[in-house]
Amino acid sequence: MASIFTKIIKGEIPSYKIAEDENFYAFLDINPNAAGHTLCIPKKEVDRLLDLDEETYMGLMAFSRKIGLAIEAAIPCDRVGITVIGLEVPHVHVHLIPLNEMRDATFQHKVPHSKEDFMEIAEKIKEKIK
Ligand code: AMP
Questions:
Q1: Average pLDDT score over the chain
Q2: Is 88 in the pocket of ligand 1 (CB under 6 A)?
Q3: Which of 26, 46, 54, 64 could cysteine-pair with 18, CB 3.0–4.6 Å?
Q4: What is the rounded CA–CA span in Å between residue 57 and residue 62?
């Protein structure tokens, strides 16, 4: 069965899309640690990061860097943290999280967003992609 993220890529489930190219897709995390928390995924559905072929792995990192730089430019924060966990959704995803304090990196503290919040944040990040 297709993962929830494959369904997002196909447009079968809505997402607050940030960017997309031939191989990768970026969208806002629906339960963010902080405003601007973004997920970058390969379109190829693979569960574990280290099972990606090298080209896709390197491509995902380059794509995540581009989106991370846009987040840093759009969202006031000390830095963007990069985390890969994957215990919840079995489709590789890189978490890009604007960090101001350690709590933002812990996944224990969540920041509720309205639909309007998500839309506004997505637009701000998209404007900064180079
Ligand atoms: P993990 O697999 O532990 O790295 O976490 C999966 C992440 O995916 C969590 O941060 C969820 O909030 C996020 N997530 C799950 N479903 C969706 C969705 N439909 N849209 C956006 N983010 C999601």
A1: 97
A2: yes
A3: 26
A4: 9
